[in-house]
Design goal:
heterodimer, A: alpha+beta, Alpha-Beta Plaits, 4 domains, six-stranded mixed sheet, 18 helices, B: alpha/beta, TIM Barrel, 8 strands, UCP030820 (chain B), DUF934 domain-containing protein (chain B), EC 1.8.7.1 (chain A), oxidoreductase (chain A), iron (chain A)
Chain lengths: 551, 176
């Protein structure tokens, strides 16, 4: 965990006071709604279809048990007893009354939690791998760099009124769990031949109505230059990004229009002027931030304890273990994913009781720490392997042990027409129906890894372009229709899905997905070939033939 | 409209001259658009008055360099408060082009942006609302903590944090 110091706390208090003053000026009429809107957005307050929504930042997806418990409290007292974890490692409360907002914010502020820069045309919450600090795959803990960027970007005077929102993601492992190739800036931490730590810098990725995979503009940037390089990118974008059309204002459009090479040249020219200036990170500064991350006091434990061996004889535990537990960098410890996708429930939702339960389990078994992943699941990154059987029993009792992580029912979906003012179609009920069709665990295990992503409109908050199966809700003559794409992926091999065929009606979607899966089972070269690999090998045509023949 | 310079309400010495109709006033400092500045370059030179230039926010600020020696004031424009191009222009003008003279924010200039304007290098502000002018002091002191360095000389946390180490404070209320 990163430990807030007196500066962070003072800033947060000042920000809360600033927003309270802005709300008062809005109520008195001193601020028009037009003037107030960007200010409330930059504090995480949206006006949705039915109510105000409060979006809370979970920097780089890391939460303490006390913070999660406080979110449960907010869900219970000010909302309808639940919260929604988003694809950007944030949490949203959908039913908060305007008059309760300041108090809800104050309650969250007491545990160092806030909604700063979770919306608005500024640098948003920096996201990273939910396994940061725990996975043996990583070159360094990416949260160090996410925290340095969090501080740098917080209320940045030059970059608070950008052409459009700006999202940065970092991965420190070759296996990309942070979707860095579909962010405005993706940073890939690695070591060069001399063992020096640096970033590959990708720009101009993004989804929405004009999806692009990010382009690499620098293969290796020594870590000490990360802030000056980001400042150069932001400065080029702030001056030359389009402001005449909101749909063309993201950096991806600028990069696309002038070309990645010209963009890179502009950045390098700007960077040459500032790289050796005040933003250069010394070892002292990096070490100071690093020292504020406290790691668990890991004990020397056996990697295959007797407790685990015994528990694996229970097939239900064994199923969960194989699905939801991953290797930790410290022997005797494990990374546990908690599926927030029980069959038939809205993806990413957690009730207040479940949040409390997870917080209690984190206290008992996981050094008080919880992570949120962009797949809308939770994670306990540091669990002693010998405690897994007991943890599983308690997760199971709380309805949090569905062993469907990375299965077809582990669906990413936006809130859709049930909540969102922008949506054209429902997303959550589609996800619920699909997960019901594949509720049989033997069946879904037989299918293997398969990511389904659902967006209720072309803004693509459900990342449908990068779903192995992508589902996009559109409106046609007042009816909900859905376009299906195949072959998208958000990992280190990121690519956009290919349209399968004509859009289908709401009622047809679950059946169509079943047909796609049946086609895959028929077409795959062996049970080892994943869905995404079959689509890659054969293209969408054989799927199209089989699926539309039956509809 | 009120003019605030370095935190104080002051008289504006400059007369803003529109692009058309008005003739250049004799012997008072003028503030003109780039169009007019270029059109009447010679007249402005021979009039021997102080000249302020409103640089458009869609033109690279580096191009102002040749004119700087002849200017007594540079103004940067915020067509709406949501258009933040002039923040980058201001920093480049101060930190790259070395402009030491007055730098004025004009347009849709509102109190919730006063502080970031100052941090970007503006020392003159023309608030769009009278009430905002009265709240200048309050707006400038709403924050004491600044995470990132700019050219404004304020101490940033990047440096201020040095020399201290983390202390274990448990998990209550301290972490994020």
């Amino acid at each position: 965990m990163y430990v807030y110091d007196e500066f962070d706390r003072a800033f947060l208090a000042e920000r809360v006071a600033d927003f309270r003053d802005q709300v008062e000026r809005r109520l008195s009429g001193a601020l028009t709604e037009d003037e107030f809107k960007p200010l409330r957005l930059m504090n995480g307050v949206y006006l949705q279809l039915h109510a105000y929504m409060l979006r809370i930042a979970i920097p780089y997806g890391t939460l303490s048990s006390d913070q999660l418990r406080r979110m449960a409290h907010v869900a219970r007292v000010y909302d309808r007893g639940y919260g929604h974890f988003t694809t950007r490692q944030n949490i949203q409360f959908n039913w908060i009354k305007l008059e309760d907002l300041p108090q809800a914010m104050a309650d969250l502020g007491e545990v160092g939690v806030h909604g700063i820069q979770t919306s608005g045309n500024c640098i948003r919450n920096v996201t990273t791998d939910q396994w940061a600090g725990a996975t043996p795959e990583e070159f360094d803990d990416p949260r160090i760099w996410a925290e340095i960027l969090r501080q740098y970007s917080t209320f940045h005077p030059e970059f608070t009124y950008l052409p459009r929102k700006f999202k940065i993601a970092i991965t420190a492992a070759p296996k990309d769990r942070a979707a860095t190739k579909v962010h405005d800036v993706g940073l890939r931490l690695h070591r060069n031949e001399d063992g020096e730590l640096g970033f590959e810098v990708l720009v101009g990725g993004g989804l929405g109505r004009t999806p692009f995979v990010g382009k690499s503009i620098r293969p290796f940037l020594p870590v000490r230059h990360v802030l000056s390089y980001i400042e150069a990118i932001m400065r080029v974008y702030n001056q030359f990004g389009r402001r005449d059309n909101i749909y063309k204002a993201r950096i991806k459009i600028l990069v696309h229009e002038i070309g990645a090479e010209a963009f890179a040249e502009a950045v390098e020219a700007e960077w040459a002027n500032i790289r050796d200036g005040a933003l250069q990170l010394t070892d002292e500064i990096i070490d100071d931030i690093r020292a504020r991350f406290l790691y668990p006091d890991f004990a020397a434990l056996e990697d295959e304890p007797a407790e685990l061996t015994a528990a694996l004889e229970d097939p239900r535990f064994a199923t969960w273990y194989r699905n939801s537990v991953h290797k930790h960098k410290v022997p005797g410890y494990s990374i546990v994913t908690i599926s927030l996708k029980p069959v038939g429930a809205p993806p990413g939702d957690a009730t207040a009781d479940q949040m409390d339960a997870v917080a209690d389990l984190a206290d008992a078994y996981a050094f008080h720490e919880i992570r949120v992943g962009h797949e809308q699941n939770l994670c306990l990154p540091n669990v002693a392997t010998r405690d897994l059987p007991e943890l599983w029993r308690r997760l199971d009792a709380a309805g949090l042990a569905t062993p469907n992580v990375n299965h077809i029912s582990d669906i990413i979906a936006c809130p859709g027409l049930d909540y969102c003012a922008l949506a054209n179609a429902r997303a959550i009920p589609v996800a619920q129906e699909i997960s019901k069709r594949f509720a049989d665990l033997d069946r879904s295990r037989g299918i293997g890894r398969l990511h389904v992503n659902i967006s209720g409109c072309i803004n693509a908050c459900g990342h449908h372009h990068v779903g192995h199966i992508g589902i996009l809700g559109v409106e046609k003559n007042g009816q909900e229709f859905y376009q299906i794409t195949l072959g998208g992926r958000a990992d280190e091999h990121a690519q956009l899905g290919t349209l399968l065929g004509p859009a289908v009606s709401y009622d047809q979607v679950p059946g169509l997905i079943e047909d796609i899966v049946d086609a895959y089972l028929e077409l795959r070269s062996s049970p080892k070939e994943l869905f995404i690999d079959t689509v890659h090998r054969l293209g969408v045509e054989p799927f199209k033939e089989r699926v539309y023949a039956t509809h | 409209m009120p003019l605030i310079e370095n935190g104080k309400l002051v008289e504006d010495r400059f007369t803003r001259v529109a692009d058309e109709d008005e003739a250049l006033p004799a012997s008072t400092p003028v503030l003109v658009s780039l169009d007019r500045f270029l059109k009447e370059e010679e007249a402005l030179k021979s009039a021997n008055v102080e000249v302020g230039l409103i640089w458009p926010n869609n033109k690279p600020i580096a191009e102002i360099a040749p004119y700087l020696p002849r200017l007594a004031l540079v103004a940067l424009n915020f067509p709406t408060f949501r258009d933040g191009r002039a923040y980058s222009q201001a920093r480049l003008l101060r930190e790259r082009l070395g402009w030491k003279g007055p730098l004025r924010a004009v347009g849709n200039v509102l109190r919730d942006q006063f502080l970031i304007m100052a941090r970007s290098g503006f020392d003159q502000i023309v608030p769009a609302k009278e009430a905002d002018a009265r709240a200048f002091d309050e707006a400038m002191h709403s924050y004491t903590v600044f995470y990132q360095p700019t050219g404004d000389g304020r101490k940033s946390l990047l440096r201020a944090r040095l020399g201290r180490s983390a202390t274990r404070k448990g998990t209550t209320g301290e972490a994020a």
